[in-house]
Amino acid sequence: xxxxxxxxxxxxxxxxxxxxxxxxxxxxxxxxxxxxxxxxxxxxxxxxxxxxxxxxxxxxxxxxxxxxxxxxxxxxxxxxxxxxxxxxxxxxxxxxxxxxxxxxxxxxxxxxxxxxxxxxxxxxxxxxxxxxxxxxxxxxxxxxxxxxxxxxxxxxxxxxxxxxxxxxxxxxxxxxxxxxxxxxxxxxxxxxxxxxxxxxxxxxxxxxxxxxxxxxxxxxxxxxxxxxxxxxxxxxxxxxxxxxxxxxxxxxxxxxxxxxxxxxxxxxxxxxxxxxxxxxxxxxxxxxxxxxxxxxxxxxxxxxxxxxxxxxxxxxxxxxxxxxxxxxxxxxxxxxxxxxxxxxxxxxxxxxxxxxxx
Length: 358
Fold this sequence. Notes:
Structural class: alpha+beta
Mean pLDDT: 88
Low-confidence stretches: none
Number of domains: 2
Shape: elongated
Strand order of the largest sheet: 6-5-7-8
Helix content: 40-55%
Order of helices and strands: HEEHEEHEEHEEEEEEHHHHH
Distance between the termini: 22 Å
Number of helices: 9
């Protein structure tokens, strides 16, 4: 079983990366940038076929892929391109900066498109979609923190705050409550509600519930609203679902920048465990996992770190503002610093994964 899960895990990550690189390829071809190779996988070449000018390859190691573009000197791990006989206007430096920016961000866009298509097809298959209601308390369980604090059925939650951590949120849906409170079970939560036109605040702390094997505050939603899905509205609700995922990611990133929730970071080990859980829950959960991770990969690549796509766009913007290219030394320095930060985060996240395993 381990081998099957591991293979599915590798295929999941590879599919997301290949789609990301395919986005770069499409945009590069639109702007006539010479792309001699597009590879699925890394390492020794197994087989290939030649298109009009691009060679499409399958390589031995099923870990991602890449597109080789003329003039792209920032990706030393990929196949280098000899530009000796290539017209300058067919290289990355030879096209307008805005075109280069689109090529860099095309991978992110493709990750989002992949996620929307997957979720839309899953919703269409299911035929319905459960919409999270507004943050209204549908019921308060007895002998729970919420009950003892004085929260009541019908209270509309307008604000959540962990004063000791310096973070707060104004939930738009009931799901936002769980997203904000996750990982902060040992902190005092201040809940502000609207009741009969009056704003009231209550302090409470989640308690561990043995029956559900989780921390609970003791409130439940008024119930989900089921929407009938068809070929026309599946795209809208797919975006609605993924918008919640995006909000969750940015909320987590915001907390991480404040030093909150670092212990909840997950690296490859944590992603593997989540993938294993999704596989055990069935094919649909595994497919949705691909969509959610594709959004994560897209957002991470859009961050303004020079080694990532968003950072390379940031460099282009800086160059446009100062009216000249940055020196190779400056770019190498920025790349080195951002690589160090990424590797440090990777090591720390893996360390947290191992701690959770132990």
